[in-house]
């Protein structure tokens, strides 16, 4: 069976078989033994895929408050690495990583890279921090699995990155979306824009990619920009776009994704946005069963135009980065689509939600692109429509908004009464 082309019944059978094995394995860890017993769930409670809801959710707090050895059944000799999450929204969590984890991750990586035509002739420049967070390791392995070359640059300064691009002439750049536009800004400021053009692909991972930012990356780098989704608790390429770029195909034979209504924690409807709950369907070094993430996604099970039948994931945003404004959940990418869709507005922005006479209002700070003028009245109205709130627009000087976060929060809440 080719998982990307499996029928729903074929996929269900594989998922069920892998789930039961993963569950037997998780039951051998002290963490899940106690977790399941505390919730009154016996191993016999789950005999099929449809029983998975009987298992309690695992939260980020559960992971943060336990040692990695407590959450693993691996003998010491089988531990290949210890990795961590990125720590973007709090203390990083650590987990033990086995050789099997590397094998499954490479399967996912080669599938994701194969969908977008990565070949042995390619050379990928990786711009990601080296160290305990696992992202760089997954990136190296996904190209290595395709026998492609890799330049593991790490998190370098913009100048060093441009030097590496000129020197090594990579065909692929792989990094966070924000890096694509910040490097372009730096290159324009230093008169080195010509160094960027001519790549074959820009691969984005690690944060949301709006269509507007995607178009900007492509206009500057002169290449196709593809999006990939992963999470540290599992690995890098859990899902990735094909050449149709209409959602990211999920590695569903190895990762079960449930989408739950955030209020009821019951399954959301087909194609509806909800909280993603992840279960790793193999004997993972640090098993992960029904992990309630902070990611909001929607899943579409209809076959893609590319012919693949694997479900497609559309990323909506992360709960720590969103705000309830006037009773509506707002993710910053909705604003980003508006702002970066305009030729006059720069790549950075900041939203501050405030009390304005007992109603929510939003201060939107942005920069014009050099030499451009922002139509404040028209843009304020457009943003008010998107946010369903009064908007005050502040146009700052180019280059003055903070650029120190690689995963920018974008929305800051300064209301005295939080929703
Ligand atoms: Zn497709």
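^ Assign residues to that structure.
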């Amino acid at each position: 069976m080719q998982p990307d082309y499996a029928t729903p019944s074929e996929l269900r059978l594989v998922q069920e078989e892998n789930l039961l094995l993963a569950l037997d394995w998780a039951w051998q860890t002290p963490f899940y033994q106690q977790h399941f017993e505390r919730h009154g769930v016996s191993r016999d409670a789950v005999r099929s895929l449809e029983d998975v809801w009987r298992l309690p959710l695992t939260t980020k707090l559960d992971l943060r408050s336990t040692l990695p050895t407590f959450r693993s059944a691996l003998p010491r000799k089988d531990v290949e690495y210890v990795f961590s999450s990125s720590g973007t929204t709090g203390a990083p969590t650590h987990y033990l990583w086995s050789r099997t984890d590397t094998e499954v991750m490479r399967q996912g990586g080669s599938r994701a890279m194969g969908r977008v035509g990565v070949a042995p002739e390619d050379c990928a420049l990786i711009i990601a921090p080296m160290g305990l967070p696992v992202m760089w390791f997954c990136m190296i392995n996904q190209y290595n699995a395709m026998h492609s070359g890799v330049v593991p640059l790490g998190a370098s300064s913009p100048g060093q990155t441009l030097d590496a691009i000129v020197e090594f002439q990579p065909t692929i750049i792989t990094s966070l979306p924000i890096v694509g536009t910040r490097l372009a800004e730096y290159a324009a400021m230093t008169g080195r824009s010509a160094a960027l053009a001519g790549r074959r692909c820009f691969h984005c991972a690690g944060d949301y990619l709006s269509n507007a930012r995607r178009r900007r990356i492509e206009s500057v780098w002169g290449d196709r920009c593809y999006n990939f989704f992963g999470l540290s608790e599992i690995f890098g390429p859990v899902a990735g776009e094909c050449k149709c770029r209409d959602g990211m195909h999920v590695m569903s034979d190895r990762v079960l994704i449930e989408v739950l209504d955030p209020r009821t924690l019951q399954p959301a409807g087909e194609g509806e946005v909800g909280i993603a709950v992840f279960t790793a369907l193999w004997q993972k070094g640090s098993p992960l069963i029904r992990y309630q993430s902070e990611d909001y996604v929607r899943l579409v099970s209809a076959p893609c135009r590319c012919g693949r039948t694997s479900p497609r994931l559309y990323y909506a945003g992360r709960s720590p980065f969103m705000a309830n404004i006037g009773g509506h959940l707002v993710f910053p990418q909705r604003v980003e689509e508006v702002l970066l869709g305009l030729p006059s507005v720069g790549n950075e922005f900041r939203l501050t939600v405030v009390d304005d006479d007992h109603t929510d209002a939003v201060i939107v700070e942005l920069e014009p692109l050099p030499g451009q003028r922002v139509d404040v009245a028209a843009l304020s109205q457009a943003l008010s429509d998107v946010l369903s709130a009064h908007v005050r627009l502040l146009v700052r000087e180019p280059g003055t908004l903070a650029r120190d976060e690689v995963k920018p929060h974008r929305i800051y809440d300064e209301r005295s009464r939080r929703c």
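The chain has two domains: 1-318, 323-413.
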